[in-house]
Amino acid sequence: MNQKILFSPIGGTDPISNFRDGAMLHILRVYKPDIVYIYLSKEMCVYQDKDNRYLYCIERLEKLLNHKFQVHELKRPELINVHEYDYFYKDFNDIISDIKSKHQYSTLYLNVSSGTPAMKSALQMMASISEYRMIPIQVSTPVKGINLHYENRDNYEVEEYWELNEDNVENFENRCIESRGDNQLAAIKKGVINNHIDSYDYVAALQISKSIKDFVCDDLFILLRAASYRLQLDFSGIDKLLNSTDYDILPIKDWNRKIILEYLLCLRIKLKREEYSDFIRAITPIIAELFELVLKKQCNIGINTYSTIKRNRNNVFIRRWDRKKLANNPDLLRVLDDHFNGRILENPIASYHLSVIIDAYCNHEKTKNTVEDLSNVEQKVRNLAAHEIISVTDEWIKSNTGFTSEEIINKLKYLSKMCSFTITKDLWDSFDKMNLLIKQQL
């Protein structure tokens, strides 16, 4: 339940001073919190024990407002050195952490006008750098200047002062001022979250966001998780997460085009992160996918016609060549047998098999050359990077293949275009557009 809670040190002008509310009482009058924690040093404990002045005025205000305050006294009868900032910072931090653990969804207000300068400074600092959202409230004096004390604090006529309190009217002057300064810790962490989003590290951004959950909206968590799923190509996860929202982060709905675009975008992100080894190891699936599409679109050859699906020893279904089916196309069988030492085996279908068929049947020279280039890239460096401990850099890729990583990805985009799927700039920049959407939630 979202409750309003006030944490208030008690100071020399509480509960009533100069015939007007002190800061603690005035905040209660204006904000009507559900729960109130009053913090009393040794001196204030003595006053409270003597005449019950603080609780008496709170109880009278309850009746006047017809609003119940749940009051907790935090007494520190041993606290004499009220000027020690470090003591208050630690004690206040422990108290507020306990309050927030008990009332997770509460709105916490801090009275930064009562108490000693050390108390006020500690609360202001906590509001500025705490992981919790807290609203510091200042209360101006009725004269807008130094608050002179006319009351005898030791012989305090609490009942009389309550009756003479000029704020006990319906049209009282609201002297509360909320401090609107941003929480500095949250501001710093938001900057770090921004940097992680720009680097496509959505998991790290999500972890940091959780540490300042009071300062960010729930939609940020939803979108960061969705972006993480997108990098994992977990489209069903995205659908489940965003189903009840108005957000849509995938620009393509058709499955065949969507998987090509999203896979290429993931490869592009690996390049931006300079994850060249992962990039090289990841190109095989998209090369095989595009080669098969080239065969279908430009050569009118569907590989499924000449293959069968069988389980391997790990109980995984694998597509394999089927010689009986290939025999129905003698010319295709001859092309494969001639290239693979007189006989194409009924092995799992690989991209280099497809490149042989494309070379024999494709009439578009640039497409054939692009397929050959990509097949060579895969054969030369993919296996090397996958099976040896080596340092893979863009220079290493260039020296071993003749192409930079950017040139390789452009060749993949070109094959996509030749398969009737042109990847426009708008599609190519869709991750960055998604990032902007996410950052708007900060």
What report would you give on this structure?
The chain is of the alpha/beta class. It has three domains: 4-181, Rossmann fold (3-Layer(aba) Sandwich), CATH 3.40.50.10770; 185-235, no CATH class; 257-436, no CATH class. The protein contains 20 helices and ten strands. Strands 5-4-1-6-7-8 form a six-stranded mixed β-sheet. It has a two-stranded antiparallel ribbon with strand order 2-3. A hairpin with a 2-residue loop joins strand 2 (16-17) and strand 3. Helix 12 packs across helix 15. The longest helix is centred in the middle third of the chain and has 23 residues, at 276-298.
Helices and strands, with pairings:
Blueprint: E1 4-9, E2 16-17, E3 20-21, H1 23-31, E4 35-40, H2 42-51, H3 53-65, E5 70-75, H4 85-102, E6 107-111, H5 117-129, E7 134-139, H6 158-163, E8 176-178, H7 184-198, H8 202-211, H9 218-231, H10 235-242, H11 255-272, H12 276-298, E9 307-311, E10 317-321, H13 323-326, H14 330-339, H15 351-361, H16 365-387, H17 394-401, H18 405-418, H19 425-428, H20 430-439
Parallel strand pairs: 1-4, 1-6, 4-5, 6-7
Antiparallel strand pairs: 2-3, 7-8, 9-10
Helix pairs in contact: 4-5, 7-8, 8-9, 9-10, 9-20, 11-12, 11-18, 12-15, 12-16, 12-18, 14-15, 15-16, 16-18
